[in-house]
Amino acid sequence: MLPYGKQSISDGDVEAVVEVLRGDWLTTGPAVERFETELARWTGGVPCLAVTSGTAALHVAYVAAGVGPGDEVVTSPLTFVATAATAALRGARVVFADVRPDTGTLCPDAASAAVSGRTRAVTAVDYAGHPADYDELREVCARAGALLIADAAHSIGATYKGLPVGRLADLTTFSFFPTKTVTTAEGGAVAVADPERFRRAARFRNHGLVRDPAGQRDPGHGGWHQEVHEFGLNYRLPDVLCALGASQLRRLGAFRARRAELVARYDALLAGVPGLTLPARRPYVEPSWHLYPIRVRDGRRREVYERMRAAGIGVQVNYIPAYWHPVFEDLGYRRGLCPQAEAYYAEQLSLPLFPDLSSAQQDRVVECLTAVLGS
């Protein structure tokens, strides 16, 4: 089965991991800081914290933003459920706002209509690797007195109006799952510019521990003394995985270039094919393509999905609208809430896209797709 996404592991990646395995630190060691420093080069210098997953990154971001019971978080339903679930786990009410019909990113007008006096944060999702409309969303947040969070699980390395993802929002989260542009196997990170929010995030990812005597309530007991002032969790990403991530980041430019080349080739090969809508791109955005999301019109998405899978091509659908999941249905959310997102989902299909995808494999995908649509 040709997968829709796949990691690209080099000998250098393997050597970086082996070096850590042969060293003194498997976790909480120097490879973590090296990875975070390397990642900050891609966020325009905004400090980063490595965590155990993209989901953990979202959870940490909501903690750093002060999201809690009684608050509201406005976000897109066209995303993996974790974007909303981690806000709900903080006790917040998730308010879903509709998406742009072409890019699938959060619509600023819909977000503006969804905010209220209780909105603590607006979380944009850089769907497929295309940055959301951050200038407009920043204005929405300013009027609402809310923080802007970027779920950049898809868009590491992308730019918006010349600025890198990581500098566009108050907090930015990344994912390093194997299908993403850069992988640490499992892993994520949070980029946080504000020092106090960074401190809060750093404590939360490490059980809430306070080790600096200057910040302790009852210091003076000895070098072993540590305190927990607010509950946290163990979201530390170990040195082994950070070593892999740092090695991968050194190839991020090449990964992005290859993905862009494959996207341009798909665009050319599929131009004018009846029954398809190809992905959109704003002229002021340089995406970091994680997905190649086509839309299959005329109610044929399921047929195309099943027939391509039967032919050994692992197309995928990204994503079920978050509030369609039973956990949100049980909270009172109903279908029809975001018509544009639901219409996008009804047609969306991700074609295989990863750096090691060959031209011959891509030709096979296109030939299968066009044959199914033409039959």
Can you give a write-up of this model?
Helices cover 37% and strands 15% of the residues. By secondary structure, the chain is of the alpha/beta class. The protein folds into two domains: 239 residues, Aspartate Aminotransferase, domain 2; 123 residues, Aspartate Aminotransferase, domain 1. The strands form four sheets. A seven-stranded mixed sheet has the order 1-9-8-5-4-2-3. It has a three-stranded antiparallel sheet with strand order 7-6-13, with no helix packed on it. Helix 10 crosses helix 13. The mean pLDDT is 97. InterPro entries: DegT/StrS_aminotransferase, PyrdxlP-dep_Trfase, PyrdxlP-dep_Trfase_major, PyrdxlP-dep_Trfase_small.
